Amino acid sequence: MEFTKKQKKFITDFVVEIKNGDAAIFAGAGLSAPAGFVNWKGLLKDLAEELGLDIEKEHDLIGVAQYHFNRHKRGKINNKIINEFTTLRQGGDNHKLLSKIGISTFWTTNYEQLIEKTLEADGKTVEKKIRNEDFSRNIKKKDAIVYKMHGDKDLPDEAVLIKDDYETYQDKKELFATALRGDLLSKTFLFIGFSFDDPNLEYILGRIKVLLKDNTPTHYCFFKEVSRDDFHDDESYMYAKVKQELKIEDLKRYGIHSIMIKEYSDITAILKEIERRLKRSNIFISGAAHSYSPFSEEQAKELIHNLSYKLAEKEYKIISGYGLGIGSIVINGALEYKYQSNYRNLDDLLILRPFPQIQSGDKSISERWTDYRNEIISQAGIAIFMFGNKLNKNGEIVLSNGMKEEFEICLQHNVIPIPIGCTGSISKELWDDVVKNHTELYFNDQSLIDEIRTLDQSGISNDEIISTVLSIIDKLQNM
């Protein structure tokens, strides 16, 4: 997909918000539609027919729900909520992408449980806020929090559905309203699958506008462009187009900027690009060295240390498996930057995953190592390969088969390798391989390929190696 200028700007800006921990998602029914989520008209169709109404002619759907409640009370509405949403068990591609990109705050008006189920399937600890009493307790070390401001399918009696529920929301659900105001003021929201017809949200946005006047925070939403193909005649199309333009303009009053898409699949493409950019800020360093030849030990340690320092300085996150003769020097480089710059948190600079060394359980050590490599490399977007040798059982220096495996795993996970060929050993072989067989990894960009070729020049200095590697990484961030 070729992104528009505005989409590119949004992607760049929202990635920054995610990295800073300031991003949040507000999910409406449209997020779960591909997974089988029934829309409001589908939910109320049978109930409207009981009242003698045609749901296709009704625009005040909350009113329809209220009319049914007035005659039949809550029983049938509750059964509808339970039956329609219990069958939804697995989130779609967009749910999975939102879980992977590291956002920790979710708000939703949906009754189903796809957001929290997807987060939990991704190995995350999730705290849910469904009722007021949920605010009195907190899960320690949670990865994400999901606010279900209109309730949950398992508590249909408390679901916000009819006019009575909306009219009393500020009193009965005051803690949700207060928490949402706070998040809307302190975080950058992305609204997905949301129509902006919800009176609760409109009231809260209005209050923030009154308080802040024209200093409202920046938020984003997706809007599908009105298409002529969706209408029977030009008049209907033009009417819808004008109405959408007015809605987009009106949302700016609340600081909500519309990101236009042509197809709903464009949302998935945009989220994938956000994930890709975030991962490319994570740099995996693959290396092992019993011998640093053709470098001297001093020259090699200086290269590893200074490269790690520079990566940390540029706020890339380093991922390392603690390879022989490499890992401890990587740590020292990142630590030196942290202490010299008073950087707030080492965890933002370095992910260290030492390999298990003792056989236990059903799997062999080699199988454990493969699983481990897959796990840590999948978190990265770029991998640097240096040196690559070890002693075998006979005391002979041989090429590192572990680094070869890491290279293959990188290709499987779309992690872009940068082998520093001049460091010799397996890195030289990997450099030969990418130059001869994998230039498409660098988008067939000649300037990038030329820089990769530079990394095998004899006599190249450490400073030249580091500046070339950083240049390659910087270019890859925007490709």
Summary tags:
20 helices, single chain, 14 strands, 49% helix, elongated, five-stranded parallel sheet, seven-stranded parallel sheet, alpha/beta, 479 residues
Q: Note the gap between the termini.
A: 13 Å
The number of helical elements comes to 20
Low-confidence stretches: none
How many beta strands in the DSSP annotation?
A: 14
The portion of residues forming beta strands comes to 5-15%
Structural class assignment: alpha/beta
Biggest sheet: strands, sense, closure? 7 strands, parallel
Radius of gyration: 27 Å
Helix content: 40-55%
Strand order of the largest sheet: 3-4-2-1-5-6-7
Arithmetic mean of pLDDT: 88
3D structure, described in words:
- This protein is an alpha/beta fold and 479 residues long.
- It is 49% helix and 14% strand.
- Strand 8 (282-288), helix 14 and strand 9 form a beta-alpha-beta unit.
- Helix 14 (297-313) packs parallel to helix 20 (462-476) and helix 19 runs antiparallel to helix 20 (462-476).
Concise structural overview:
This protein has 479 residues and is of the alpha/beta class. It contains 20 helices and 14 strands. Helices cover 49% and strands 14% of the residues.
